[in-house]
Design a protein that fits this description.
This protein is an alpha/beta fold. It has 9 helices and 7 strands; from the N terminus they run βαβαβαβαβαβααβαα.
């Protein structure tokens, strides 16, 4: 009688998160706080040299594996590269992605009729198209993992949106705000679709945060209370995602402001927006 063939055991992988826009700002903060929680990381940004330095620093400090993945998500090539990584299901050497953090974005503004069409396309490609395509790459894998009996790890997606999308009228930021509103509505809808699989999708409605993208706002003299610390944004969003909440507004001042905004008459908000433009 021949000996039964040994079936190789599937490789064991550590919890792994993929963070886009990871080289600076909120993305870098996500990388550090997830490493602190024991996650291995795949860090995505355009600047490979900055990613390499950050990866080495995080590995040294937290003892987790970090894979730098240089890619421009505004291009088909970069988007395809990262989507391919997100489709890893754990059967091979690459760890499956337990958490995708869709953080990369750009905040170009200006009067719509004066914005260059190419700049509009570039912003929509990064702020909307990339967010959807990356989530579409990873969510089916996560659902399949749940179906295969993988029940211990929390799985899902966090997408960083903005309260700019909640304002009725946003002169000077019409494309940016509309794109963020799209991401918010899309994310909350997908959260409802995947909830039955115990996969969590959370959208982060952030206010002003001191990052490179808000340098102009910072220099305008906006008071300190208008800014939410990066660590608070990340901490509150990770708590919300872990709890399965479809959305979160970080910062007490913005929670209050969002509540008030719901009760203000839309014509009043539009008129005010025109005056402060």
């Amino acid at each position: 009688m021949s000996e039964p063939e040994n079936t190789p055991e599937p490789p064991v992988h550590a919890r792994t998160a993929l963070v886009t826009g990871a080289s600076t700002g909120i993305g870098e903060e996500y990388a550090r706080r997830l490493a602190e929680r024991g996650y291995s990381l795949v860090l995505v940004a355009r600047r490979g040299d900055v990613l390499d330095t950050l990866a080495e620093e995080i590995t040294t400090r937290y003892g987790v594996h970090v894979q730098p993945l240089a890619a421009d998500l505004g291009t088909d090539e970069g988007l395809s590269l990262v989507a391919h990584r997100l489709r890893a299901d754990g059967s091979g050497t690459e760890a499956p992605i337990d958490l995708l953090v869709n953080n990369a974005g750009r905040g170009d503004g200006g009067t719509f009729t004066e914005q260059e069409p190419a700049e509009i396309d570039a912003m929509l490609d990064l702020n909307v198209r990339a967010v959807l395509h990356l989530a579409r790459a990873v969510l089916p894998v996560q659902i399949a993992r749940r179906g295969a009996g993988e029940v211990s790890a929390k799985l899902g997606v966090i997408s960083v949106s903005s309260l700019a999308g909640e304002i009725v009228a946003n002169p000077g930021g019409s494309v940016y705000g509309a794109g963020k509103k799209f991401v918010t509505l899309w994310s909350e809808s997908v959260a409802a679709e995947v909830a039955e699989y115990d996969v969590h999708v959370t959208v982060v409605l952030s206010g002003f945060v001191r990052t490179n993208m808000t340098l102009g706002v910072q220099e305008s003299g906006l008071p300190a209370f208008a800014f939410v610390p990066k660590d608070l944004v990340v901490r509150e969003s990770l708590i919300a995602w872990s709890a399965g909440r479809p959305s979160v507004v970080p910062g007490g001042q913005y929670k209050i402001a969002t509540g008030l905004l719901r009760f203000l008459p839309k014509p009043l908000v539009r008129a005010t927006a025109r005056r402060v433009r």
